[in-house]
Amino acid sequence: MIDDTIASGKEAAQRRAALGRWRARGVNPYPPTFHPSHTAVEAGAQADSETSVVIAGRLGALREHGRIAFSHLIDDSGSVQLMFRKDVFGEAHWGMLRDLHAGDIVGVAGGTLRSRAGEPSVLVRQLTLLAKALQPPPEKFHGLQDVELRLRKRYLDLMANPAVRELFRQRTLLVTLMRSELDRRGFLEVETPVLQPLYGGAAARPFVTHHNELEQTLYLRISDELYLKRLIIGGFPKVYEIGHDFRNEGVSHRHNPEFTMMELYWAYADYIDIMDLTEEVVCAIVQGVTGSTSVTYQGSKLDFAPPWRRLSMREALLHATGLDFGQLRDEASLAMACRERGLSTQGAKTWGKMIDELVKTYVEPALVQPAFLVDYPWELSPLAKRHRDDPLLVERFEAFAAGFEFANAFSELNDPDDQRLRFLEQERAAKAGDEEAHQLDEDYIEALEHGMPPTGGLGIGIDRLTMLITDRHSIREVILFPHLRRLEQEG
């Protein structure tokens, strides 16, 4: 497949020779500007009115039949047939057609009409070469199928596959609608540091870098959380940020080292308020992008209309495995119960992480319709408020659809003493080998000591939500330039 999209030595030589002939004519094959009056589709729509148009785009294959030639001009709107007649285009210019190739970017001026076959066309009077293509277009515009090549050379993917261009338009619309929904609810969009002296806000391994002038180790942020909550402390009641986070961890069809998150914080709200907000905002986005509150994802119809199902982690795990972790409150009893039932915890050693592994294995795959899984073990959530009815749990939810998580939220911990204890517990976990443990952030604790109101926080994964809305199995398909392994050097 790759060989089909890269010019052979002979073809590359032909294109370069044509480039030389254009220059020999005194033509600049890469001029600085051009001003179309219509798109290709708009020009085609004028076929019955004999309108003069100026259009620009990529040239399709040229077919010459004596004193007439045909091609197509392709732009972002679609395509329209080009008709070259020697008596109109000019005898003196006719020879230059042989120095055009599929994929060249051209501007043409002419009049609209229908061909004898009835196809909307532009009868070309003048052609301007705007960029000579020294490589051919992929598969001559019939579509690029090689997944690896599509991701590594996204420009070819976008060139060849209009559906991919539409996917990324939908992604942009998704973000626009998210901003609109939050803005009209009074949230203020802000920006927080990407380079941070301490990483925090999530359980993840960071990317590490170094500032030479300051002689300081810095980290690419794994979350926006701690800075956004500083803004709540400072007096902004509703804030959000849409930006990139970075986690130095595994790559899979749902994980990319660089990803886009929306995080918001809402003073005087709790995780129940945030559940209501989440289902309202996500439903509005789905409807705005697709025209419906339902989508089909990998063969399953998902209905995002509120209300979504809300189930406790304890209830869900009991239903899936028969284990009631409310009665199994320590590692030993939980491990024994797992062994008795033949349940795997993937080698997790603590009570909370054992539960987390059980949920990932036996609960999450069954959460197909949009749902909230609520009330998590406290040790998995060092920044969440303890549950008002059970101190071994925290007020946290994750939103799921199609068996995977796309949103995470807390009633935020605002007790500075409890926060310090949680950070110290994370430090002990780090010393025991947990590379994803949270760092102790004294500055953040000091900020909490100035008083943070009760606050609800939410993070929504833009990439994963895009996957759900556009029916894409892999996160790499919804990121324009995903991270990929380097190709092995040949020879």
Question: Describe it for me?
Answer:
- This protein is an alpha+beta fold and 491 residues long.
- The chain has two domains: 2-142, Nucleic acid-binding proteins (OB fold (Dihydrolipoamide Acetyltransferase, E2P), Beta Barrel), CATH 2.40.50.140; 161-308 and 369-478, BirA Bifunctional Protein, domain 2 (2-Layer Sandwich).
- The protein is 34% helix and 25% strand.
- The strands form four sheets. An eight-stranded mixed sheet has the order 7-11-12-19-18-17-16-15, with helices on both faces. Strands 1-3-4-6-5 form a five-stranded mixed beta barrel.
- Helix 8 (162-184) crosses helix 10 (271-290).
- The longest helix has 23 residues, at 162-184.
- Mean pLDDT is 93; it is low at 1-7.
The CATH superfamily label of the largest domain reads Bira Bifunctional Protein, Domain 2
The major pleated sheet works out as: 8 strands, mixed
What's the arrangement of strands in the largest beta sheet?
A: 7-11-12-19-18-17-16-15
Q: Tell me roughly what share of residues is in helical segments.
A: 25-40%
Please tell me what the overall shape is: elongated
Query: At the first level of CATH, what is the class of the largest domain?
Result: Alpha Beta
Q: Approximately what portion of the residues adopt beta-strand conformation?
A: 25-35%
- Summed up, the helix count is 16
Q: What's the end-to-end separation, in Å?
A: 20 Å
Low-confidence stretches: 1-7
CATH topology of the largest domain: BirA Bifunctional Protein, domain 2
